[in-house]
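Operator note (shift B, R.M.): manual run for DUF2269 domain-containing protein requested after the automated queue skipped it. Running by hand, logging everything below so the morning shift can see what happened. Input copied straight from the record, untouched. If output looks odd, do not overwrite the archive copy; leave it for review.
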Amino acid sequence: MKPRARKWWLVLHVVSSVGWLGVTIGMLALALAAFDAPALYPAMSLLGDVVVLPLALTALATGVVLSLGTKWGLVKHRWVLVKFALTVVAVVATTFSLRSGLHEAAASASDGTAVGAVGTDVLVAACVSLTFYTVNTVLSVFKPWGRTRWGRTP
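Run finished. Output pasted below as returned.
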């Protein structure tokens, strides 16, 4: 990949990743507040659909493009492989678990029924997501563990 193109892909990756992290921190704050104000769940559901999912998919796609288009490779370095795995798990969990939990909580809050354990699940999901993104950030900065067997020269 040419340096100018790499820089633009990197900007898009950093912006989407930082955005995903920021929205997750906001969702964590809202999840805590929603225990006293369940009316927040519909807003959280909207954020999950309109903001979190596009940012997650963009971060994943740009990360793959960068890994394949640079010296780091997707499977050459352990830290890149771990970041990729954590991101895939986070995107799948966001798509199929977090969003459905947010929709369920929003529906319960709108009906006036008790949100119950779904609220706790949303809070736990935000905590797990924040942990994943923090680990990915640390991996990006420190680049630990060296090369994989596919990244070693023969």
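Quick read of the result: The chain has one domain: 3-142. The radius of gyration is 18 Å.
Leaving this for review. - R.M.
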